[in-house]
């Protein structure tokens, strides 16, 4: 007959399973409580039990096994609310499998394979569904249902901070913050001219915006390309590294103005700020799929990359706030400090400090990655399709003086340039953006989904589906975005490009991101003839593209650049 203490342990495991199902506990609190109970149990057995350590280990091991077993059985049982949805049984039992494939950067590919096997609606966690249906997109992300971000967007460390880019406590807080941020980006984005010094005297009223930062830093980038190639013994340089440093410098200047300068293009990032920002994003995106694990990892070395970046941005934001009275040039912070004039709403400094991290990381990372992959795909297929040659031909025709000013309206209407950006976005942004079903549940494409379930669109599957992009959905074909497409049977479903999302949580910097990419890509094409290095492995590079909420490029984009005939590099402003 089983010892009563062991029977009690099994029963307590069942009770624990039920309690945590109905009353979830933070992961760090649960770990602390469990550790305390182990210590107390051990100390109580030291005096009376000849083998207190063995007994303690067995009892708590049995308790853990019991609790986990009851939880697993329920999650794969026919009584679970999501029992009717297919998926691998290990994924149904625990979200740790989703954490793992997210961390490895292959989530989009694995979900695509699973959808092919199980169908358009897939269960990928205890309370998580993935939809490979275009019709589900507007329901999940649209304003009509206004689903909130899932718990993977919780503020790391449960800081008492309400930051726009994380999950807010209430919908009203999100709406107020978004109004303030939208004002900043709207004021910054819709400016018709990218100015040169000779033009400033004619447009003094328009200087107070973010456009000069793009122009000045992009001109500096051209010199950076020149310098890094000349310093290389092989006559090659890593274009992806240049673009990452350029984007970080641009966002640093946009957010903080002249009060803080990163100057990564000059320093080559000795403190590994770009890599640190990417690692912080990886931790949030992967561990966040299992929030209890994120609670614990915050205290471990894995969580320190985010804390380090946050502390750096916080210090810079404090410097910027102190210098506000002396600032004459508009930056993002100047708009944010003003707040919402109609309501009087202002963003507290502690919230600004965290938002600054995300603005810098998110604003620089996705822009630079998209451009890296645009150049990779263009150069890799230039012999077959001549894409880089076509881009140069288009910008040459639009701007006869390669060193002269670039008009924003002309850039916005260059068909091939914009088609190249859209095609790069299609293949470069397979992001996983989970939302949580609100109270009362929601019907998605005829299926009732109960409240509390996390749902997301399989972006990669939709963006590479023959139903939306035909033919050659897996290939980089700029023509699909141009009139005539890839032939009379071709299809380009523009609504299936999810790079910036839509609805209440859509990216508010979409227009600014396009503007940055248009300007920088045009400048590079005007100034340089480029080609991949002689030993560049095109297939290896593509296989080394890892996607989380950021993109990791495992291999450098080694290219050679030759200054074009008649091109000169203007000095940065």
Automatic annotation (TrEMBL):
The chain crosses the membrane at residues 6-22, 29-47. It holds the Pfam family p450. Pathway: Secondary metabolite biosynthesis. GO terms for molecular function: heme binding; iron ion binding; monooxygenase activity; oxidoreductase activity, acting on paired donors, with incorporation or reduction of molecular oxygen. Heme binds at residue 507. Keywords: Heme, Iron, Membrane, Metal-binding, Monooxygenase, Oxidoreductase, Transmembrane, Transmembrane helix. Gene3D superfamilies: Cytochrome P450. The keyword Nucleotide-binding does not apply. Its cofactor is heme. InterPro entries: Cyt_P450, Cyt_P450_CS, Cyt_P450_E_grp-IV, Cyt_P450_sf, Cytochrome_P450_monoxygenase. PANTHER family: CYTOCHROME P450, P450, PUTATIVE (EUROFUNG)-RELATED. Belongs to the cytochrome P450 family. This is Cytochrome P450.
């Amino acid at each position: 007959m089983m010892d009563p203490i062991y029977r009690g342990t099994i029963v307590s495991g069942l009770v624990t399973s039920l309690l945590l199902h109905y009353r979830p506990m933070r992961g760090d609190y649960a770990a602390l409580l469990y550790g305390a109970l182990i210590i107390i149990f051990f100390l109580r057995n030291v005096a009376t039990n000849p083998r207190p350590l063995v007994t303690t280990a067995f009892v708590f091991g049995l308790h853990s096994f019991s609790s986990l077993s009851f939880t697993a059985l329920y999650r794969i049982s026919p009584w679970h609310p999501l029992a009717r949805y297919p998926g691998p049984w290990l994924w149904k039992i625990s979200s740790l499998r989703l954490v793992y494939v997210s961390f490895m950067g292959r989530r989009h590919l694995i979900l695509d394979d699973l959808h092919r096997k199980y169908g358009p609606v897939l269960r990928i966690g205890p309370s998580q569904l993935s939809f490979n249906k275009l019709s589900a997109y507007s329901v999940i992300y649209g304003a009509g249902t206004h689903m909130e971000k899932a718990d993977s967007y919780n503020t790391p460390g449960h800081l008492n901070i309400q930051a726009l880019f994380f999950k807010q406590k209430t919908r009203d807080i999100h709406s107020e913050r978004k109004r303030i941020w939208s004002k900043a980006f709207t004021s910054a984005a819709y400016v018709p001219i990218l100015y040169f010094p000779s033009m400033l005297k004619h447009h003094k009223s328009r200087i107070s915006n973010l456009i000069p930062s793009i122009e000045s830093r992009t001109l500096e980038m051209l010199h950076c390309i020149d310098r890094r190639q000349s310093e290389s013994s092989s006559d090659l340089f890593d274009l992806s590294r240049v673009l990452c440093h350029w984007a970080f410098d641009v966002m640093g200047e946009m957010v903080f103005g002249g009060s803080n300068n990163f100057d990564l293009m000059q320093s080559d990032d000795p403190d590994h700020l770009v890599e640190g920002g990417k690692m912080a994003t990886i931790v949030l995106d992967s561990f966040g799929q299992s929030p209890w694990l994120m609670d614990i990892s915050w205290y471990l070395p894995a969580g320190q990359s985010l804390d380090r970046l946050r502390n750096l941005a916080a210090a810079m934001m404090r410097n910027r706030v102190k210098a506000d009275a002396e600032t004459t040039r508009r930056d993002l912070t100047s708009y944010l400090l003003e707040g919402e004039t109609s309501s009087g709403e202002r963003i507290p400094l502690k919230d600004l400090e965290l938002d600054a991290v995300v603005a810098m990381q998110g604003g620089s990372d996705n822009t630079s990655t998209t451009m890296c992959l645009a150049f990779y795909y263009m150069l890799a297929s230039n012999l077959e399709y001549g894409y880089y040659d076509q881009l140069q031909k288009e910008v040459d025709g639009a701007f006869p003086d390669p060193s002269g000013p670039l008009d924003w309206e002309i850039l916005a209407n260059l068909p091939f340039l914009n088609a190249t950006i859209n095609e790069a976005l299609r293949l470069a942004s397979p992001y996983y953006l989970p939302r949580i079903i609100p109270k009362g549940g929601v019907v998605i494409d005829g299926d009732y989904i109960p409240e509390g379930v996390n749902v997301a669109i399989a972006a990669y599957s939709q963006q590479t589906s023959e139903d939306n992009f035909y033919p050659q959905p897996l290939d980089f074909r700029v023509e699909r975005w141009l009139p005539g497409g890839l032939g009379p049977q071709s299809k380009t479903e523009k609504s299936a490009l999810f790079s910036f999302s839509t609805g209440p949580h859509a990216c508010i910097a979409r227009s600014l991101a396009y503007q940055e990419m248009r300007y920088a890509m045009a400048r590079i094409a005007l100034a340089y003839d480029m080609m991949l290095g002689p030993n560049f492995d095109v297939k290896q590079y593509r296989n080394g593209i890892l996607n989380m909420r950021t993109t990791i490029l495992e291999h450098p984009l080694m290219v050679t650049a030759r200054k074009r005939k008649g091109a000169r590099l203007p000095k940065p402003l």
